[in-house]
Fold this sequence. Notes:
Elements: H1 2-15, H2 18-25, H3 29-43, E1 48-50, E2 55-57, H4 59-83, E3 91-97, H5 103-115, E4 119-125, E5 139-143, E6 151-158, E7 161-165, H6 167-173, E8 186-193, E9 196-198, E10 200-202, E11 208-210, E12 212-216, H7 220-228, E13 234-237, H8 242-246, E14 251-252, E15 263-269, H9 276-289
Parallel strand pairs: 3-4, 3-5, 8-12
Antiparallel strand pairs: 1-2, 5-15, 6-15, 7-13, 7-14, 8-9, 10-11
Amino acid sequence: MIASALQEFVTIVERGSVSQAARELGLPRPTLSRHLAALEDELGVTLLHRETRRLALTRAGEELYRRALKIVSEARELEVAVRQLDGVPRGILRVSLPVALGTRASEMIERYLADNPEVSVDVVSTSRHVDLVGEGIDVALRAGVVRDPSLMVRKLVPSDAQLFAAPSLLERVGAIETVDDLARLPCVLLYQSGWKPIDDYPKLDGGSVRVSGRIRANDVQLARGLTLSGVTAALLPTHFCEEDVRRGALVPVLPDVIGAAGAVSVVWPAQEHLDPKVRAFIDVAVAIFAGWSGGPPCD
Length: 299
């Protein structure tokens, strides 16, 4: 089918190599290479220059890619619209879940598979906010504020953040009573997007305060572990540290000054027709998080 050939061609261009495209499409690399050669033979043009380290589009390839993007997008929309006629979730769901969900992630996937026997699931567990469209992810869970206008958002539970430290660290650096005292407190530097660290923490009044530290990370589990050991302080989800605070392993630092209100949300790319398998996952996420009052307990 021409639609299938165009989908394969678009994937090759977007992934930058036949090998990576073959892995994403679930095809052997020689098979995808043959399909590409057959497409070029059928059209009577060369679409790609096979260079040593990368693929380069010819003028014909650029024109085909530009037009094929629209065709492939419409074909996907058509597929979703047809599937919606009976509303049965089918196919492969690619979902991104935060590492900090721990065993709660397995609970969510287990229920989803039980409720939707015609769907299989590819799970990407990462603390990074993935590019859903660019990386072919159908749906994801996000903590914090979602600012991407290309995404649809359904808030699940509140998830506030506070600055926490171990008593042993505060004994070493001295009491932290004002924002000026934070200059003595080593803190985890977070990543706002990509791999660019940010060196300030939010204030409850809407401003921010400068912090410093030798550790840069976006993994909540790692940040909590280092904070518990007294190596550093960190801005962490409040619900994530409730038990640590109860047993005295962590204490809030400047709780009336430093912090941010956020939420755990389920997000998916904005589109005219919502695939039933995505709708089913959203329903499962809403149902499970409804039982986690005060936020999802992470293991």
